[in-house]
Amino acid sequence: MSNDYAAVATSVIFGVLVIGTAQHYAMVKRINDLRSERIQTVSDARERVLNDLRNGTKPSLNDLEQSHASRLTHEGFDGVLARWSAGLWGIVAASLAIVQIRILIWAGGANPGPAPELAHIVFIDTAVAIALLVLEAFVSAAKHLKPPAPVPLPGNDEESAQLARMIREHHETPQAPHPQTDTPTQTSSPT
């Protein structure tokens, strides 16, 4: 461990703590927003069901399903991710804080020695924290990827069925080779 390594490690640890805290805050905020939206959906559905009952009409099946209280307790992937992320980030942040305190104790000594074990611990903790930040970024990005929407075909269902039938028949019919692309090319040998 050297003074330069301690300075670099301190900067990296500070950066990881700042970025990690910002990422964690953004994720928790997004999950809380989704939960608030779910609560609002349940509340609105219950209001519609009650209005339908008061008016003597049959509530829609969709409103009855959305008004069920179990929708509020179901966490899904986001809730599980938030709980695991909170616990993991707490462990990582505490570990980085402890490592930073050890660096400060080492640097504050009368004659700081090489301390290779401290340098090793600093490297491992910082590398794991950076890897977890990158992993969290990939998980967040992957959650936002959506499959492409189906491309609407022109025409009505009958025309689409006729087009599909024509394409299928075209592929099932043996085709004559194209004279310019499907015939073997002859090469002349130099004599």
Strand content: under 5%
User: N-to-C terminal Cα separation, in Å?
Assistant: 74 Å
**Which structural class best describes the helix and strand composition?**
mainly alpha
N to C succession of SSEs = HHHHHH
Secondary structure: number of strands:
0
SSE inventory with pairings:
Layout: H1 3-54, H2 61-66, H3 70-73, H4 76-107, H5 116-144, H6 157-172
Helix pairs in contact: 1-4, 1-5, 4-5
What does this structure look like?
This protein has one domain (3-144). It is mostly helical. The protein has helices spanning 3-54, 61-66, 70-73, 76-107, 116-144, 157-172. Helix 1 runs antiparallel to helix 4 and helix 1 runs parallel beside helix 5 (116-144). Helices cover 73% and strands 0% of the residues. The protein has six helices and no strands. The model has no long low-confidence stretch (mean pLDDT 78). It starts with a helix and ends in a 19-residue tail after the last helix. The longest helix has 52 residues, at 3-54. The radius of gyration is 32 Å and the shape is flat.
Features:
6 helices; flat; mainly alpha; 191 residues
Entry summary:
The protein has helices at 3-54, 61-66, 70-73, 76-107, 116-144, 157-172. It is mainly alpha-helical.
